[in-house]
Amino acid sequence: MDWWFAYTPEGARAVGDAGFPPERITVFNNAIDTSDISRTLAEISDEDIAALRASLVGGSEHVGVYVGGIYAHKRIGFLIEAARRIRARVPDFHLLVIGGGPDAHLVQAAAAEHDWIHALGPRFGRDKSLHVKLARVFLMPGLVGLAVLDAFAYGTPMVTTDLPYHSPEFEYLRDGENGLVVAEADSADAYAAAVTRVLTDDDLRARLAAAGAADARVYTIENMAERFAQGVLMALRQ
Question: What percent of the chain lies above the pLDDT cut of 90?
C-alpha cells in the first residue's frame, strides 16, 4: 500500500485535497542540523562581538544580514535597493551579505559604492556565526527555504516577502509571530519599512526572536528523523 511523506503540513493538505487518504500521510517537517550554530554561538563572547562591531560597522547596532546563495530567485537587486531605503530611514544602518553565487557581482558593486554594504563572501562555522550575531534582522526578500531555521537558531528575526515560489519550509515562518512577511512583494519601500520596524522596535524584535527560538526546538533534524521513522513503521504495518 502506498504511503506519502510530506515535507510540511501544507504539503500534506495539498496531497489530501487531491484525493490521497490522509491516514496514509506522514508529515515529517523537513529540517537541517542547526547544532553547529548553537555550538559556535556558545563559543562567542560579548567582547568578540563588540570588537567586530567596532571594526566592521563603526559600532552601529542597526545591522541587517543576508545569508545564503546569491542568485536570481534570491532577488539581490531588490535587496540592495531596499537596503538603500532602509539607510535613508536609519542613518547608521549596515548590511552584511554572506554567501556566494552568480549574482555576487551585484553585491560587490554595491559594496564598492557604499561603505555600509559589506560583501563578505562565503563564511563558515564560528566566523559565520560571529558576523550574524552583529545583526538585529535577517533580510531574505527572495526565496525562503531552510534558511528560516538558521534565522530561528541565530535568534535573528527574518523579514521576507509574499512570493509564489518559496520552498515548503516557508510555512514555518508565521507573519507577525516569528518573523515578518511583507504582502507587497515588489515594493522596496514596504520591505524597508518592515525591516526598519524590526531594527528599531526592541519589543517586537524580542517577541519575534523568542517565538523563533521556540520553533527552533520543534523543527530539528532529530524530530524529523523520528517522524520519518514512525511513518515507515506505520506503512510497514499496513
Answer: 98
Question: Any idea what DSSP says for residue 175?
Answer: B
DSSP H or E run through 120: strand 117-121
What contacts 101, CB < 8 A, 6 or more positions away? 69, 70, 71, 74
According to the model, what pLDDT value does residue 39 have? Answer: 96
Identify the helix (H) or strand (E) that includes residue 182: strand 179-182
User: Residue 212: which of 168, 174, 238 has the closest Cα?
Assistant: 174
Residue 133 has pLDDT above 70, yes or no: yes
Question: What pLDDT score was predicted for residue 79?
Answer: 98
CB 143 within 8 A of CB 73: yes
Distance CA 202, CA 205 (A): 5
CB atoms within 10 A of CB 193: 16
Report yes or no: 193 and 161 within 8 Å, Cβ to Cβ.
no
Pairwise CA distance, residues 18 & 154, whole Å: 37
User: pLDDT class for 237, splitting at 50, 70, 90?
Assistant: confident
Q: Is 75 exposed, middle or buried (0-12, 13-18, 19+ CB in 10 A)?
A: buried
Question: Does residue 1 have a pLDDT over 80?
Answer: no
Cell 507573519 sits at which residue?
175
pLDDT at 15 over 80: yes
Q: Which residues contact 5 (CB under 8 A, 6 or more apart)?
A: 25, 26, 28, 228, 231
- Return d(Cα 129, Cα 185) in angstroms, integer: 28
Mean pLDDT on 206-222 = 97
CB within 8 Å of 102: residues ≥ 6 apart: 70, 71, 72
Nine-digit cell string for 41: 554561538
